[in-house]
Structures are given as structure tokens and as C-alpha cells.
Design goal:
about 325 residues, alpha/beta, Alpha-Beta Plaits, 2 domains, two-stranded antiparallel sheet, about 30% helix, globular
């Protein structure tokens, strides 16, 4: 899921179309409650599935594909159990030495095996959800938003890749008085970026790497569209936070920090930067997807490197937060 793909210079999204009069639906893979890392206060974060980037260190590998996917936890498989094999109509599962194996080339992500498994050794990433259902999920935690100044955050994946669904959710939250934040890479058509920025209360704008060659190498896409879209959002004067995933060997040198500070000063209108040190928390996800070792080549920046970045950005007048 995080392997290299064809590199592109402009975002191309497949939009979900609804029948006339129908509310749009979206593909999501997780709803996280009581989040404190995705905007102010206590938040409910809705993770959209599907992303045009292929960041090789991605912490949410299940978010990348636009399709539903089956994940396997072989360590949970019960001896002598064949429930999943019996219900799979496509023969996309088999057992070898008592351990379940997934054959993705046959799988149609129907979910029958997940429902049949008594040990939760199988998990389906991705479900289609309507606007009303999503808003009902968000409203469950409203007392916590009111108490903490929190709200709903839309993350991914790339939420701007499902613009009709996203904007419907933003409008629905506004009508209910719920604060909204959108976490985006900015790799989207300008008209989508501006529409979302105007509809959301806060944009969390991820900048992966300013060096164009390294950006292509590690994400699969050009950063030209991303940087220009950031300029567009900044000109709107809307609340905006820059988030930078710091990965040693990718984008975490002192020179990278100076380049970022200079660029943000040239953009203007930005007050806060969040530095997100790389960690290996997603290693188990890659293992369940059959990609164990995907993160082995990446390292966290040192404490000294983080401190140097923080000092540099604060010296330029930015409020800096370590972590989301």
C-alpha cells in the first residue's frame, strides 16, 4: 500500500456522484474519539480512505487505497478454525501451518470472512457512510466539544479527494455549531482547496518536504501544486496551522528547517507550526498488510534536531508545537 507509484504533477480524483436529490456518501476507515492531536480541544476525527500521495513512511497505510481492504492478524487465528475459509466465495483465504493467509489478488472485500471470524483475526479497512450517519457519530461527543473547545476533524488519507462528502459534513457541522478542522496534504484542485478552506474553521496543512526532488522520491508527487495551494489558503486569512512530519534522512536537516522558515515567511499569514517526529507506531499495521519492515529504513529525528528546529521557527515568530 505504501509502495512507489507513478509520479504525477497534478491531482486527479475520482469523484463520488450521487443520484439527483441524494446526499453524497464517503469512504472512511476509522472514527477516533477523544482525540487531542488533531486540532484544539477534545475532538472526534473521521479518517477518509484514499490518498493521492504515497508517503513511504505513512502512519496510516490502510488509508492509501481508494478501495476496501482486508487486513489479517495471523497471531489471533484459532487452531482448527476454518470459519473464514468456509464463507469466502472467492477463495481469497487459505491456511498454511495453521495460520491464515490472504490472497489479495482474489479478494473482493465482501467482508463475509470478517463477520464469520470468532477471534477478530480479520479486519476490513473501509466502509461507505452517508452524511447523516457521519454527523450522528460526530454529535455523540458534543458535550466534550462544548466543555473543551473541541469539535470534529476530517483527516485521512486525503479528505479533499472526496470533496462533495467533505463539504456536506463541514456544512452540517456548521449548522450544528460544531467546530471543524481539515487535515490535508494540499494536493487537490485549487477550487476544491478554496471551497474547503472557506467552509472549515481550521486547516491543518501538511508540508512533507520543500525539496522538489525528495518530495517526488518519498511521496510520488510534485510539491508544486501543494505549495501554490498553501499560498492560496494563506491569502484567505482563515485559521491555518502548518504540520511537518519530521523524518531523519528525508526532511529533518538544519538546512531543511531554514528552508521551511524562509518559505513560510514568504507566504505570510501563518502563526503556528506543529512538528511531528516520525515514530514506528504503524509497524504492526504494515505487518497485517503483508509489508513487514516497510518502516525499517526510517528514523526519528534526535531531540537536539527537534530543539534546533523549534528554536529556529520561534525565532521567526512562529508558535511551535511538538506533536499534533
Amino acid at each position: 500500500m505504501a509502495s512507489k507509484s507513478t509520479q504525477v504533477d497534478a491531482p486527479i480524483f475520482v469523484r463520488e456522484t450521487s443520484h439527483p436529490g441524494e446526499s453524497p456518501t464517503g469512504l472512511v476507515f476509522h472514527v477516533e474519539r477523544f482525540s487531542i492531536h488533531d486540532g484544539p480541544g477534545i475532538r472526534t476525527t473521521l479518517f477518509f480512505k484514499g490518498c493521492p500521495l504515497r508517503c513511504t513512511w505513512c502512519h496510516n497505510p490502510e488509508s492509501i487505497s481508494r478501495q476496501k481492504e482486508l487486513f489479517v492478524r495471523p497471531e489471533r487465528c484459532l487452531d482448527g478454525c476454518a470459519a473464514c475459509l468456509e464463507v469466502c466465495p472467492h477463495r481469497a483465504l487459505r491456511k498454511s501451518a495453521g495460520v491464515i493467509e490472504h490472497l489479495p489478488e482474489r479478494c473482493q472485500a465482501c467482508g463475509r470472512c470478517v463477520a464469520a471470524c470468532p477471534a477478530e483475526a480479520l479486519e476490513m479497512a473501509g466502509r461507505r457512510i452517508g452524511v447523516a450517519e457521519a454527523l450522528a457519530e460526530i454529535e455523540k461527543d458534543r458535550p466534550f466539544y462544548d466543555e473543551s473547545g473541541g469539535g470534529a476533524t476530517f483527516s485521512g488519507g486525503e479528505p479533499l479527494a472526496q470533496p462533495e462528502f467533505l463539504i456536506s459534513l463541514l456544512d452540517g457541522c456548521r449548522a450544528r455549531g460544531i467546530h471543524t478542522a481539515v487535515d490535508t496534504s494540499g494536493f487537490a484542485p485549487p477550487e476544491v482547496v478554496l471551497a474547503v478552506a472557506n467552509a472549515a474553521d481550521l486547516i491543518l496543512f501538511d508540508l512533507k518536504c520543500l525539496d522538489p526532488d525528495r518530495h517526488r522520491r518519498f511521496t510520488g508527487v510534485s510539491n508544486d501544486v501543494i505549495l501554490e495551494n498553501l499560498r492560496r489558503v494563506a491569502r484567505l486569512g482563515r485559521p491555518l496551522v502548518i504540520r511537518v512530519p519530521l523524518v531523519a534522512g528525508v526532511n529533518a536537516t538544519p538546512e531543511d528547517g531554514v528552508r521551511l522558515a524562509d518559505f513560510l515567511c514568504s507566504v505570510g499569514g501563518i502563526g503556528q507550526v506543529s512538528l511531528l517526529p516520525f515514530h514506528r507506531g504503524a509497524a504492526a499495521k504494515y505487518a497485517r498488510a503483508g509489508q513487514a519492515g516497510q518502516l525499517d529504513a526510517f528514523q526519528s529525528p534526535t531531540g537536539a534536531a527537534l530543539a534546533e528546529w523549534q528554536q529556529l521557527l520561534e525565532s521567526r515568530g512562529y508558535k511551535v508545537r511538538i506533536g499534533g
